[in-house]
Amino acid sequence: MLTRELIATCSRGLEEILADEVLNLGGLRVEPGRGMVRFQGDRLTMIRCCLGLRTAMRVLIPVASGPVADREQLYRLAAQVAWEEYLTPGGTLAVNVAGQNPAFSNTVFAAQVVKDGVVDRVREIRGGRPSVDLVKPHVPIHLHLGEHQASIALDAAGTPLSKRGYRPKGGPAPLNSALAAGLLLLAEYDGERPFLDPMGGTGTFAAEAAMIATRMAPGLFRRYAFERWPDHRQDLLIKVRRDLEARQIPAPCPIVSADHDPKALKVAKQNLGAAGVNQWVDIVAGEATAMDPPGEDSLIVINPPYGKRLGEADALKGLYSALGDRLKAIGGNSTAWILAGNRELSKNIGLKASRRIPVFNGPIECRWMRFDLYEGSRKFRPEDNSLAKNAEE
Ligand SMILES: C[S@@+](CC[C@H](N)C(=O)[O-])C[C@H]1O[C@@H](n2cnc3c(N)ncnc32)[C@H](O)[C@@H]1O
Known about the structure:
Radius of gyration: 23 Å
CATH architecture of the largest domain: 3-Layer(aba) Sandwich
CATH class of the largest domain: Alpha Beta
Oligomer: single chain
Bound molecules: S-adenosylmethionine
CATH superfamily of the largest domain: Vaccinia Virus protein VP39
Largest sheet: 8 strands, mixed
């Protein structure tokens, strides 16, 4: 593949972080957009981005774009692409749709139109039909609908890059891994300071922190759609894996993931083991309201419950206010970042945020709020520090 336009998509709010990542992995002419970054790259860059990007959801190879106001236009746009270079009659495809267009209020219909254009083209040229496989298609196709236009791309990764491949299938994933990594990078975490997530749940932040601290590429555990393409170069994939693996270093500072729920701790332990980072993370049982960071100048990240249902948020006010009290007491030049999904609730923290960065956790608009915990803010330190106790099996 010669150098061509590529697109990496991400949660909104992470575009600048993703642009830096793409640059570091060899992308050229990198331009952040809305929920995505455009760049130029060859096959090696594409593979490197799939394995190495922490904050991207997809790496796309655009193949067609144009005005679209009805079924016929979208069908013709899809049928003009040389799909026969990727798909044989026995091959499989799936169409994923993002964005909105007034002519296609039903995105399933839009996906079907693209599928028809692809299948008809391959049948005409190759004499047989490819079929649909929604789970593991040879060619995942990404359709992006804009108000008056659409663009079609090959999806090089297939399953979104936030699926790192270490969680058991169907296991809980409360925080998207790509978003977690992006939030840590927004907090300027580079592994060079102690780290604590006192509401760590299944360990998503800690897993991403350990990968950042050890320079471990997040995509070493999984497979990619491009491996099923006729022009796939296994030698390049092996080279990229080796290069990325050679960058790894031991974690320079402690990383702690805590929770008060024994079930969450058990899952965290499994996940961090499967991710190959358990030797760098201490999983401990304890109350967040009695947290004690693992050193001066720690980074504390918190993804507290939001209380999605009516009445639940009220019950959480006390927890937010106790969290704020504990942070005031910690001081030590540490920094805390809280992912706030409920503005009213976050007021109960009772501390003034020095930064509030808008980010999207799926459809929920959140604020990634930074609190600087200066030495002077230390007022008390409760005797009971249950976070120091190691979690039981
Ligand atoms: C929104 S979830 C965090 C999910 C986590 N980021 C993950 O990816 O799994 C909130 C977590 O906080 C924990 N939690 C709630 N109240 C707590 C408290 N007072 N002390 C410690 N953990 C608490 C819950 O058990 C839950 O695992």
